[in-house]
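This week, study the protein below.
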Amino acid sequence: MADEETREEKGETTSGDASVEAPKKSGAKKGGKLTKASAREVSKRDPLAAYMKDVQRYPLLTREEEHDLAVKFVETGDVEAARKLVLSNLRLVVKIAYDYRQAYKNLLDLVQEGNIGLMKAVQKYDPFKGVKLSSYAAWWIRAYILRYILNNYRMVKLGTTQAQRKLFFNLQKEKSRLSAMGIEPTPEKIADRLSVPVKDVISMDRRLSAGDASLDAPVGNSEGRTVSRVELLEGGGPRFDDVLADQELGDRLKEKIHEYGATLEGKEKKILSDRLLAEDPKTLQQLGDEFGVSRERVRQIEKRLLQRMKKYIEGELGQAVLDVYEAP
């Protein structure tokens, strides 16, 4: 355990037997130095090796130097001190990202996200609590890497709740663990061991076992034609022919109302145009003041007008039309 901590402080970024240090390339001069041409070739063939070569230019800090820089950043906000703390721990990010190479193939993407977590850790780090920056930063680095994997594992996000996130990272492990114990990994047993709902286990298992399906992928229909999957999905709104039928019915109803309005005179014509059909209808009191009568008298005229207009429309279009527009 002591040897592992010593290796970590010296910047040896290994995981198991696999090393994440830049592999030595052919074309190197004596002493392990690469020519400019060979360095460019390394960058083209292995971007991670080129990144590691660049990272190793930044020296590691002693505990005392790290503490002094952290205190300086906390007390004065010195950006240069924070920069040195970040650069000296870039190897740690690669080491942690390498542990997740099976979950996400592009290791440099994980390193990039882990670097953001490292910068966040430097911002939040308290040097007076006696904890090493690398120990504290590891939690932030892992959190950012795991969030990135979760958000980019599929085109459609998988882990949108806490239970789903737990299942995303532990479902397959728990199934393997139960199988090794000779226990059938049923959704009920997995849900009980992980303390999540059974329906979430079933849903996540289906989503992880099936790949993303494109809505534009061609599929066959009942007529033998090749159409995209999206064309076969049922729309959420009303049917197009129903929309056209309602629009035509509304136009005919509007036409009959205006025909009836042309037969009116006096107060009734004014009530229809200024109250019943107006975008900004007048009140009963306003019309009463205009006619020189009470608001109750205007209401009685309006009621009689509506009854006669409904009877006219029923005779022209039928009762079914009125039933459609009077339905709640």
Remarks:
- DSSP finds 16 helices and four strands in the chain.
- The chain has three domains: 2-25+34-152, 162-209, 242-326.
- The first helix runs from residue 2 to 9.
